[in-house]
Amino acid sequence: MQIDIEWEVGKETSVPYEKIAREIVEEAADFVGCPYDISVSVLFIEDEEMHRINLENRGIDKSTDVLSFPMFELESPGVFTEDLEEDPGNFDPDSGELLLGDIILNWDRVLSQAEEYGHSVERELAFLIAHSMLHLFSFDHMEEEERKEMEEKQEMILQNRGYLR
């Protein structure tokens, strides 16, 4: 499993963000039963940069807490079929890992939302990564039923690693 983590925030932190990112990426892959070794990129940025990326990529002129950029879409969320292997572009030619996608986290929002929701920064960070990983596995929350399913899965991933409210 390859997890590339980049910190592009102008200040340092004592929060073990790399450890949390690795734990939750691994737990999410195990949770959905991903049969492949995966490659994921996790980028930490500040609010202003997130605003720019959100506008540039989604046409939304405001910041957000996390963005997910999947490399492909599964026909059914979390279901890995053989047709995934038919496109060699889905896999790293050197390592054979499934190129799952990119996660971009707004560190300013991680901090402010942890305070707003009354839980730890570690828990908020774990939540946002779990949420984003589910998007990379083609889960969504546009419909009420999808939202409930995704929330349940997020909570289970967090509980499995001890990130409780």
From TrEMBL:
Annotated GO CC locations: cytoplasm
Subcellular localization(s) per the UniProt record: Cytoplasm
Ranges annotated as spanning the membrane: none
EC number: 3.1.-.-
GO molecular function: metalloendopeptidase activity; RNA endonuclease activity; zinc ion binding
EC class: hydrolase
HAMAP family reported in the protein's UniProt record: Endoribonucl_YbeY
Record bears the keyword Electron transport: no
UniProtKB keywords: Cytoplasm, Endonuclease, Hydrolase, Metal-binding, Nuclease, Ribosome biogenesis, rRNA processing, Zinc
Keyword Manganese: no
Cofactor: Zn(2+)
Name under which the protein is recorded: Endoribonuclease YbeY
Entry similarity comment: Belongs to the endoribonuclease YbeY family.
Pfam families: YbeY
Cofactor, how bound (note): Binds 1 zinc ion.
Signal peptide range: none
Job description of the protein: Single strand-specific metallo-endoribonuclease involved in late-stage 70S ribosome quality control and in maturation of the 3' terminus of the 16S rRNA.
Top-level taxonomic group: Bacteria
InterPro entries membership: MetalPrtase_cat_dom_sf_prd, YbeY
Binding site for Zn(2+): 131, 135, 141
GO biological process: rRNA processing
